[in-house]
Design a protein that fits this description.
Elements: H1 17-28, H2 31-34, H3 40-46, H4 51-68
Helix pairs in contact: 1-4
InterPro entries: Cyt_c_oxidase_assmbl_Pet191
Keywords: Disulfide bond
Organism: Drosophila grimshawi (Hawaiian fruit fly)
Length: 80
Amino acid sequence: MMRYEGNEKLADVTSCAGVRADLKMCLLESECCRLDKKTPRQCLQDNSVPPECQVLRNTFYECKRSLLDNRQRFRGHKGY
């Protein structure tokens, strides 16, 4: 999870926005994007991202899935 200093808030306040922002930053800071000059989408398709980004990708998937799952209504949305 990214640490935001002071009163910084994300512009996107929708569900899963924090996970999405962390995944985006993880991908942009990966070697695949920095050194190979690939887009984050290309890095995800090539599976050439670090394990931390894979975990965030799975967390983002689970968060988006929980939005559609009626059983999750009572438990709340996953993510942060």
